[in-house]
Structure formats: C-alpha cells, structure tokens
Amino acid sequence: MSNRVVRRRTRTGRGDASAARTAIERALAAGDVPGAAALAEAALSAGASDATMLNLAAWRREEAGDYRGAHALLRQALALAPGDVLIAGSIGAVLRKEGRHDDALAVLDRVVAAAPRHAAAWLERGYTLEALKREQEAGESYRRALALDPALAPAHGRLADAAARRGRGDQARDHAARALALEPHEPAARAALATVALEARDGAAAEALLRPLLDRVRGDDRTRTLTLLGDALDRQDRVAAAFDCYRAAQGSFRDVYRDALAPGPGRPSHRAFVERIAAQLGAPRAPAPGGDVPGAAATHVFLLGYPRSGTTLVENVLASAPGVTALEERDTLAAADDALIGNDGAMPDLAALDPALRDRLRADYWQRVAAMGAATTGTFVDMNPLNGTRLPIIAALFPAARVLVMRRDPRDVVLSCYRINFTPSPAAWAFSDLEEAARHYDALMTLTERARATLPLAFHDVRYDRLVTDFAPTVRAMADFIGLPWTDDFERFDRTAQRRGVRTASATQVRRGLFDGRGQWRRYADQLAPVLPILQPWVERFGFDS
Predict the structure, then answer these.
(1) CATH number at residue 314
(2) In sequence order, what are the beta bridge partners of 458?
(3) Is 407 among the domain residues?
(4) Are 417 and 308 in contact (CB under 8 A)?
(5) Which of 37, 43, 66, 123 is disulfide-compatible with 56, CB 3.0–4.6 A?
(6) What is the pLDDT of residues 63-116, one digit of tens each?
(7) Could you tell me if 219 and 311 lie in one domain?
(8) pLDDT tens digits for 98-110?
(9) Would you say residue 503 has pLDDT above 70?
(10) In a domain, 14, yes or no
(11) Whether the Cβ atoms of residue 269 and residue 345 lie closer than 8 Å to each other
C-alpha cells in the first residue's frame, strides 16, 4: 500500500457493518488492497463509521491524487482511534504530498517518538526530510527504516538515488542492487542507475533502465522517470523525443500538484507575486541605518539570478576559498517573509520600517544561518537564485550586503528550467509550462533590473559565458567586488562540491568541473520557437544575441 499500513483489526461504528468488515478482512488477507478500499468506500457511503474503513478510503483518495480528500478522511479516522500511529503516519504522508513538508515532519517526528519501531514511518520521514533538502538526515531515517525492516526496497532505492546524485557510483549501484533484488522495478533504484549511466554519457543504458517503469509508476515517480528518460534521449541526440518526454513530465507534475499549487482565488501565480513586488518599487531611497547584530558575518553576500543560471557553480567557487561559508538555497529569510510580504506580494513601506522590528528580523536571520550550520566569522554567501523577489527586504535589512547577479543566456535558462524535475513550489509550477516559464523569467528580470535602479545595494554581474571561457579573470573581478583575495582554491570548486554535496539540479555539472553548457537551446530551437519573442528583449539587453 505504498508503504502505508492499514490495520486488519477494525473498530465498530454505528450500525451493523459486520458483513462489510468481514469482506474487507478477506480482501486484505488476500492482498487485494484496492478491493478492500472499494468495499470500505461503499460501507462508509451506507453509513458505517469505522477507523479502518476511513483509512482504506483515504488510501484510495491518495492513490488518485486527492491528497486533501485523503487528509480529511484520515482526520476522521484519527478521531475514532486517537493515538493510532498507523493513521497518524498516513497523515504525515498526505501532508508531504500536499506540499506541507514542515507540518508532515512534525507529525512524523511524533509518530516515531511514540512508535520507534514503525519502519514505514521512518521511511516516510526520510521522504519528507529529502523534500526539505535535508539529505543527511533523510539518509539516517532511511537507514533506521532498513534496520527495522530490511525488506523495504524503497529505502534502499532512495539511498541509491542520493548516492547517485552525489556522484558516488559504487554506493549507488550497491543500494540499487539490494532494492532491485527485493523489487525489480523499484523506481528510485532504477533512477539511481540511470543517473549513473547519464553521468557516464550512456543514454542508451539509461533509457533501457527507465522504459520498463513507464507503465508502472505514477505521481512523483512518473514525473522523475519521464524527466530522466528525456535526458537519456537527449544524450542520444533524439531531441524531438526528448522534448516530448519533458513535456509529459511537466504534465505529470501538474496532475500531481494541481490542487496544491495551481493559481486560483486567494492563491496568485508566482509570476503575479513577482509582478506585484516590482510594481511597488519607486524612486531610489537612502539605506536605513542599522547597528551591529550578534553573530553577523563580517562580509555578507547574496547570490541570485534565476534557477539554472549558474548560481550553484559560483557558490561552490566561492565556498572553496578560506574563510568563506555558503548555504545553498535555504530559507534564511523566512521570518522576514512572514512579517513583510503578503501572499500576493504586497509589502509595507520598508524604508519606514520600525527599527525594533528591523533589528529583530536581522537577528532572526543570523540565528537561522547559524542553526543551519553556517559559520559567520568571515564571509557568508547566501545563495538562492530566486532571491530577486527579496531584494526590497534585503535592502531594508542588510543595506551593506553585496549582491551577485548571475547572467546566462535566457534561452538556455528557460529550456533548462523546463527540463528539470524541481521540488514542488509555486515557482516550479511556473516552470512546468513553457510559455509561463518564459513570462516568469521576464517578470523576475524586470523586478531585478528595477531593484538595481531603485535600491541602495551594491550589485555585480557574473556572466556564465565568461565564467566558463575565461575563468580566472571573471572570478578575480567577482572576488574583488566582495573583498576576497585571489586564491588557487577557487579553481578546485569541483572538489568542494564533492565534499559539501550539491542539492540543486546542477550537481552533476558542478562535480565535473568547468562544464560549458552554452548554446543548449539551439538544438531545441523549433520547440522553443513560441517563447523566443518573449525572451528576445533580454537576450539583447544582456548581450547574448551574437
């Protein structure tokens, strides 16, 4: 049951439902969970009230992608069976699938504390930690699950996948072999082996691993399989077929997350959010004064631009230098977001921010940074490619910060975003439609350029094309802007990436050293044709039209 467990012992509700319970027990004993769930739905419709029936009906909704409906049924089940850790664990699972990862983790932490031998809950907790990009903790949770139940193929599969993404091929193959011995079509294990094959540039081998999954997987697994299959076909230069896979992958993503992420009443699109912030930027304002904050870094750098623009590469270059600490796409500004920006992008007058609130938000930021394991005694680099949306907040709280803006050919950027299986978010929803991705890019670039013209911050452009063709002078100029001396360690960024681990979609490229990804869009020019007019003004403005 997708690693969920349903009690075969039922609890009596109102009315005489003994015949239904008997039939459900028989179906479960025969391993027919879908049949048992259908019987449970029928019994509930007839007036039965039973925790197991509700749990089974919730499973049926969950399998159909109705996570909100599943959650509601599980809450009813828990009301009938308070303290039932199996039902609580299932609630954690649907919360994760709704995209409510922090809530899911809180529930699952309570479940494993109450029932430390509940292997399925440790597995689900690993999924949730992985979604939160807390890979080391996720791995520990998967290992706890396996210690309790060595036959949990998905735990081996996830450990294999994590190892493959870190470039640890032998470890990936070992865990994948264990997973596939238990379940020959375990999707994460096959994805791991496909990732290893793709890193070795063997598209045909990756395709052979992935094709058998297409008729077997759904949900996130289907999205991931289609994305990797697109990469496998791309490696074989089968461009049209590859693009069809990327389109199908994004369609799968939308099917899974439509209820959680699709714009609607009370939930503006991420592009509308960006546009609202841009509209509020007015005439240039003087920086707000600010005193010292305990724990603040001596030099503070924000690295932003757009996803797939090269921010991960630059982050690892900078993190290679002595005295530099960097965080990769962590939610360091969460408290400021909550206090200063609405769901629709509305902001107060940040230049008139109450000094006490400003100091509290600055202190919270540095406390979060420290809690995330970053040292702040020297230079701290906060990397988030979408932090252009937070430039007004950055200017209000940290006017002395240095801002690095990555620039890459917009056509390569938008294509790459469309080809990637991102963690679910409102921005990821924008990337799942090619035209919306291009318009979102246009909106964020408009915001970034307006912020540069109106906010009291120091900006420096880092061009991806120059970084990969003229590395030392480009990095030297960037280092001079920040106030860092040149070091040959900058050139060893691939070792830094191996040591630190890379959580973004750029992991493979950064581990390979100075990967030149320019001009990828040209092979997909026919597929990109509808959105090229949207991107052309930025192509010209940034000087990528040659």
Answers:
(1) 3.40.50.300
(2) 402
(3) yes
(4) yes
(5) 37
(6) 887 888 999 999 999 999 998 999 999 999 999 988 889 999 999 999 999 999
(7) no
(8) 888 999 999 999 9
(9) no
(10) no
(11) no
Domain shared by 286 and 244, yes or no: no
The stretch 314-331 carries a mean pLDDT of 92
Q: How do residues 183-215 score in pLDDT, each as one tens digit?
A: 999 999 999 999 999 999 999 999 999 999 999
Which two three-digit tokens encode residue 291? 């005193």
Instruction: Tell which wins on pLDDT, 432 or 504.
Output: 432
List strands edge to edge, sheet with 402-407: 324-328, 379-383, 299-304, 402-407, 458-463
Do 459 and 489 lie in a common domain?
A: yes
> Could you tell me if 331 and 363 lie in one domain?
yes
Instruction: Report which residue type is found at 64.
Output: A
Give the 3-state secondary structure of residue 145: helix
Average pLDDT of 446-459?
96
**Quick one: which of 429, 264, 283 has its CA closest to 343?**
264
Query: What is the full DSSP assignment across 204-226?
Result: HHHHHHHGGGTTT--HHHHHHHH
Buried b (16+ CB within 10 A) or exposed e, 193-229: bbbbbbbeebbebbbebbeebeeebebbbbbbbbbbb
148 within 8 A of 115, measured Cβ to Cβ:
no
Total structural domains in the chain? 2
Query: In 10 A of CB 185, how many CB atoms?
Result: 14
Query: The tokens 């992935």 sit on which residue?
Result: 210
Closest CA to 56 of 65, 46, 42, 68: 42
* pLDDT band at residue 484 under the 50/70/90 scheme: very high
- Whole-number percent of the chain with pLDDT over 70: 92
Query: CA separation (Å) from 179 to 97, 169, 211, 228?
Result: 23, 15, 18, 19
Residue 359 falls inside a structural domain: yes
Residues 401 and 421 in one domain: yes
Does 293 reside within a domain? yes
Could you tell me the two tokens for 348? 């107060």
